[in-house]
Design a protein that fits this description.
This protein has a five-stranded mixed sheet with strand order 2-1-7-5-6, covered by helices on one side. A two-stranded antiparallel ribbon has the order 3-4. The chain contains one helix and seven strands; from the N terminus they run E-E-H-E-E-E-E-E. The protein is mostly beta strands and about 110 residues long. The longest helix is centred in the middle third of the chain and has 7 residues.
Length: about 110
């Protein structure tokens, strides 16, 4: 998957980009209104945003909200599917991990693996 933006002057549909800014683990990441959180992160070159039990980076896998590989915390709401959630200007995204001891947010007690 490669992120691609259509320039306004060549857009036959007539879309007009409205920029937005989200924060991902303290880093400002720019995107456009209408993009999903996953789309904003992919366009910014972030291909992985959590770690599996092996420590390997994980990001978007299915892209349609079925696999749970793109789970992030958005504005303190855990387990948000980044591929399904539209980014809103000012969103605060925190990367998370389901496995204790793996970099990212440690699993909270009582939470279950999916």
């Amino acid at each position: 998957m490669s992120p691609r933006r259509v320039r306004a002057e060549t857009d036959a549909v007539g879309r007009r980009e409205r920029p937005l800014l989200i924060t991902v683990d303290g880093e400002a990441v720019g995107g456009n209104d209408g993009q999903t959180i996953a789309g904003v992160m992919l366009a910014a070159g972030r291909l992985g945003w959590r770690r599996g039990v092996s420590g390997a980076a994980r990001g978007v896998f299915c892209g349609i909200g079925v696999c749970f590989d793109c789970l992030v915390t958005v504005n303190a709401d855990r387990d948000v599917r980044a591929c399904r959630r539209r980014a809103r200007d000012g969103d605060v995204v925190t990367l998370q991990s389901r496995w204790p001891g793996i970099p990212g947010t440690a699993r909270e007690s009582g939470s279950e693996d999916r």
